[in-house]
Design brief:
about 90 residues, alpha+beta, single chain, rod-shaped, 3 strands, 3 helices, 2 domains
């Protein structure tokens, strides 16, 4: 983990090199406190993709759990009931 003070951002080329040298975020401090986090666009895109995949997996897991809890119905049966109810 890298931590730099905000004043180092003045040297943009150096900070860019630091970002591209690692896939990890760089924490920027202001007055000794964490202020922001920076990373290369490539590292950010990779991290975002991992998050999207994790969210998709979580949705599938929740769907399976709903089936196991009996909270879902067969689509064909539900459609038949709707057609019968509304005379479709």
């Amino acid at each position: 983990m890298q931590i730099i003070p905000v004043k180092e951002l003045k040297d943009g080329a150096h900070v860019s090199e630091m970002c591209h040298a690692t896939d990890e975020p760089i924490y920027v401090t202001k007055n000794g406190y964490s202020d922001m986090v920076i990373m290369s666009a490539e590292a950010y895109d990779a991290m975002s993709e991992r998050v999207r995949r994790s969210e998709a997996i979580a949705m599938v897991v929740e769907g399976v759990a709903a089936v196991q809890r009996g909270e879902v119905r067969n689509a064909f049966e539900a459609a038949s009931e709707i057609r019968a109810k509304y005379g479709l």
